[in-house]
Amino acid sequence: MTRIHPRLVASPILVLVAFASVLARPADASAANYYKLSAYHSAMVLDVEGGSTTAGARVIQWYDNGGSNQHWTVPLQFSAVLGGSADGPIVNQRSGQCLSTDGVAGHQLFQYPCQTRADGSPVAGQQWRVENVDADGVLWHSTLIKSVDYGLVADVSGYSYAPGAAVVAWPQGSPGAYYHYALNQVFNQARA
Predict the structure, then answer these.
(1) Is residue 83, in this structure, part of any structural domain at all?
(2) Distance (Å, rounded) from C-alpha 161 to C-alpha 33?
(3) pTM given for the model
(4) Which domain holds residue 55?
């Protein structure tokens, strides 16, 4: 019978306990939580085209590939009830820039360095309302993303199912899944 030395058994257990304690500690209040914003109609996510970190880079829908250019902070201080909402900037993980609109219906959304007014609130075009809504009977995690300043919603242009389709600012019309999103938290938040 082979005898296993106690030190060989203890070492992996200590590593496992140390790893578990790191995972169990409370999240740092300043650490951002990132989310994938998945369009209900296509199941594709909001993506900064080509993983760009350039100001003005276009926002499109693309297959979920796990890239940090598809991860966004979202204001989530709202109640989970229908109609609950919160306002604030939506920031891309890879670039650190804000989801932005020029306020013109049909124009593509883009990323741009986050800017604030004198009172500390985001400038026009970078303030978004994230609201729980009923998307054609789908309540759980149905989310509407709407510009606070312009009243336009983040919408996939032409109801497209194509990867690379533009995400545009558009007037909110009748309920439809083309401008409703699912928020899926990203748990591995290492910056790529």
Answers:
(1) yes
(2) 28
(3) 0.75
(4) 28-186
Give the CATH number of the domain where residue 61 resides: 2.80.10.50
- The H-or-E segment that residue 8 falls in is helix 6-24
Residue 191: inside a domain, yes or no? no
Summarize pLDDT for 141-184 with one digit per residue, the tens. 578 889 999 999 899 998 899 999 999 998 887 555 456 677 67
Residue located via tokens 């203890």: 10
Are 49 and 57 in contact by the 8 Å Cβ rule? The answer is yes
Residue 90 lies in a domain: yes
Q: What are phi and psi of 24, to 5 degrees?
A: -85, -15
CA quadruple 19, 21, 26, 28: dihedral, nearest 10: -50
Closest-CA residue to 115 (of 145, 89, 149, 147): 89
